[in-house]
Amino acid sequence: MDAYPLDYVGHNLPLVLLSGIEPAGQESLHLPSSDVTYPQLNENGIQIFSDFPPLTDATAKRLLVDLLAEDASKSPWNARAYGGKVGGIGFRVKRVGRTYTLPPRKARPPIPSSSPSSSNHNEAAGAPLILHSPISPLTPASPTYPDGIATPLWVTKHQSLVPAAFVNFFPLTLDSNMASLRDNQLKIEINSLKKDWTSSGYKTRFVVALICEDGPVPGDINDRISSIRRATNLDLKNIFVLPPTPSQEDFRDFVRSLFSSLQGPCVEYYRDLSKHARRKRNRGSIPPPTAPPTTGTSQTLAAQGWNIRYEFKLGVFAEFRQEIDAACRSYESAYALLFGEEVFETIAGWSPRFDDARMLADVLAIRIIRCLLWTEQTTLAVRQTPIQSRQAPIYAPPEETISANERLYPWELLHHAGYWLNRAAKHTSRRRLLAEKIPDEDRSAPTQASPAQAKGRSNVYDTYLAPEPFDEYPLSGSNGTNHSKLIISYLTASSEEFSKRGQLRMVESQKLDMAREHMRLGEWEIALDILQSIWPVLTWRRDGWWHLMEEFGWALRECAHHVGHSETIIRVDWELMNRCFTPRVGWSYDLKRGVVDLPTVEPKPSIVFKEEEVISFLSASFAFQKLEGNVGEPLQSQLVIGSCAHGSASPISLTEVKVTFEGSLRPIKLQASHEAAIVACNQTEISNITLSDSLLSDSASILSHPSNLPSMITGEVKVSSITLMFEDDRFDITYVVTQQPSKESVWWTLGKKGAMSRRIGKDRDTSACNILPKPPKVLITTPSLRNHYYTDEHMVLDVLVDNEEDEPAEISVERRSIGIVDATCRRTLPLMFTDTSMPQDYELEISAFYHLVSDPATPIFKTVTLDLSFIRPFEANYELMPRVHPDAWPDFFHLDEPGFSDESESRAHGLQQRWCLNCKIISFAHEALLIDEVEVTVNGIAGGLVRQVGPALRKDNNAAEILPEQVCECDFNIELQRLALDDRQTTTLNLSLDIRWRRQGAEVASSSTIEAFIPKTTLPIPRFVIPMGEPRVLATVMPSSSALSGFIHLNYTLENPSMHLLTFNITMEASDQFAFSGPKSIAVQLVPLSRHTIQYNLLATGKDKWIQPQLVVVDSYYNKTLRVLPTEGMKADKKGILIHIA
Fold first, then answer.
1. Residues 1067-1087 pLDDT 10s
2. Same domain flag for 878 and 1022
3. pTM (2 decimals)?
4. Cα 465 from Cα 1127, distance rounded (Å)
5. Which of 361, 366, 794, 858 qualifies as a cystine partner to 1013, CB 3.0-4.6 A?
6. Which pLDDT tens digit goes with each residue over 628-643?
7. Which CATH number characterizes residue 943's domain?
8. 590 phi and psi angles, rounded to 5 deg
9. Structural domain boundaries enclosing 1046
10. Which has the closest alpha carbon to 910: 893, 891, 890?
């Protein structure tokens, strides 16, 4: 498509020229475009002259940017909706100078010929010459004379030379002193320009735009503009004004209004041209030529040819108006006439007119297809190009299977522009091969071409869209087609398209082809720059495409050799020595020899290779034998250096190998000795000390065991890099390996058959080692540690520190220095733990920090972790039981006021009650414990006063031994007193149980001098709520003093602590368990704050049994039965009290 003239196949837009506005610093333009050629344009063109200075200020510059932004010639175009710019039709906007040259409307008269025949003909004619357009088939100097149908110059004339609108920009001064003078100059200039345009014969729209200068706006500005408009006879739609110091919105409004006003006039301009062409077509006669053809058998263009011209013109003018349907009809009509019997078939195949008609047919087809696609008539567009169905490969197959409900548009399957540009480069290469086959007799330009010679060449060479053979590939000394330059231009544009889409492999391939073309032209430096920029980041190296990388490398080396760039040669040779590349026959793989014929460079180049960036023939790895090491102890490690160079490669001598680490390990540096040891091919040598003259060749490798690698600081040590250095008189090479191989490492050892390898470090990084502190030889033991400890006791441990080092050491245990301990000596530290009231598990860590006296810089520590379990030794159950207070209650009728001598008496003088707290203590210890003392502590009371808490009542008053899970029972008598006689609130009692205990043999539990400690365990007692204002019945039993067996005295005490008179009905039920004497039924009245005792004598019917007297006490007023409460020596169940008969 690029071979077609751009204006011939391009979409046509109305041309708008901007005159008088230029960026600062640029000279005025006198031609519409420097690349436009038109017959007689400079010699016979119509000049629109103006010497008025152009606008170059900042306002003009900003306005010019906005105006040129409306140029739609490079934008995607659709005739239905032009969405990007103002208005409905896009424009082609160009900037020109004040002076502009229009193409001539009539050609110059031909120069009279001196031949007798021509002079006779002119005399016979006797009429003036009829002049036509310089590109008309009727003009002798025209490229279409005498029988040409069309030429691209006609489209160029209307698309690039003759504008539909010409916008002139002038300054409008705001200085009142200069206003009159400047306005008159504007009037004269505008009238002069209008006169030139009128005399040119072109009906271009003349527009004036006034740009106000900076400054305050005078009041008469509108009158001045109106005066200019009237003096120049301009229409209101043909003059525009930009206000001073415009804003961005002002610029936008100005541009919008300017191009909106040009929409209608531009359409009318091309409609008038269409009417003119249609009138000429309908005329039906062929205009006479300026001079008839006189050479050979030439004849003028036939009538059908003229109709084709007119239809083509009508289609182009309709496309200017964006009337795509009308343009398509005109193109189709011209296409049908072109292939009629009277036009195409009458043109000889060897004639140049055949190629012109062929090009016109292609142009019409392209324009028809474009019109059909814009009007969404895709089916008709495909029918117009049946050849497309045979070119299915232009559609790229989808990468994935497309579901039925998804739709891919045809243009989504097309290749992008880079593909076709690459095809053009390949086509040009084939074109060059064909050109090189042209014989010498056809490569020289003929002095005078006869029709027979032209016919003969047309039978051999197809010159459609291609030059003649003598222009395509002329003999030496003549300028012909530079195929390499064409290929380079195509590849450059193609690589840009591929690069935009991230297709880097294709870009690299095209860069290689570009470099080859430059090499073909002898442009070695340009080729070197192209290849050198891609070589470090070549994707073929990463993907393992060795064959392509090899071609790239040899091409780069050849360029570097011609340029004399020794560093590049060394870089390429370093990689090409790898045996993954195909060895070149007869080539010497030697780094030194590759640059021996080049001049010496000072200073000599120092080249650094990184392992991840190149394909090196050298490899290096470093492995630690074990995952962990200790401070001050050697680390077993292994350095492996291998070579995978070609078998014919010369060995290299490494001058130094350096291994650096991340962490506390110092670098390892291995230097070559003067005695070189040659390692043969496919051989492995192991050295346990140093690397001696590492001469590497082919598959040889040298392994070194740097066994003495002491580290003085703890932490992780990891290989940071391995550096291989090679020094020569002409260059220095440094090869750095920063990434260890990801596959499993091997460890080389010497066996019976030589070096053997075995895998090490499964599931670990062999290039890293964890440096642990130096292993301590100080032992920490606790011989007095028990399995269990109990809460509230002081735990005492004896920590024994044994120094088993070979020399004295200064030791500190938990910040406590114990001084210097000689070898094989022991120190004892007592530890005591207090405040162990919570039952839980502890983890005790004892750390000993020390250093040897001979090496104080190396700290060593030893840590021992102990598990301590503290459990609660006792748990208890509690029961609060009532008792009869032995003291008499106060007399309600003889109440004595309390004295004030005793503070407590003055504070509490109410009724007193006695209660018994029964505690059942259970041992949860894992061993027998000794209980020294048990007591109850009053933590608080509300609504009363505790008079007395009695001691624990136990059978054995001495220390009691309690075994695991054994129960020990204790009773405590508690006397309570109300604060006042009329106090009826509930009494709340908070108590706790204190148990003093110790282990058996606790006095010898530790060998230390720490004073013995008796632990006290405090158990919380649930809160007791006592209703001291409620009446109750208490039963007490006493054995009889008589010798009668089974005879007892049973007393029932009725208490009325309230302030009410209470009456109770009392009934003793008979039983077969005993006989009794006492009231069977009785009514008892109790005054407030009084109690009464009823005595029964019971004789049981047997011995060693439990009897259950049933005394029913009913409150007569509330009809409520009171429960009889047992006291000491009794039990109770749901039915009542139980008394044991001995």
1. 999 999 999 999 999 999 999
2. yes
3. 0.61
4. 134
5. 794
6. 888 777 788 888 988 9
7. 2.60.40
8. -145, 120
9. 1032-1141
10. 890
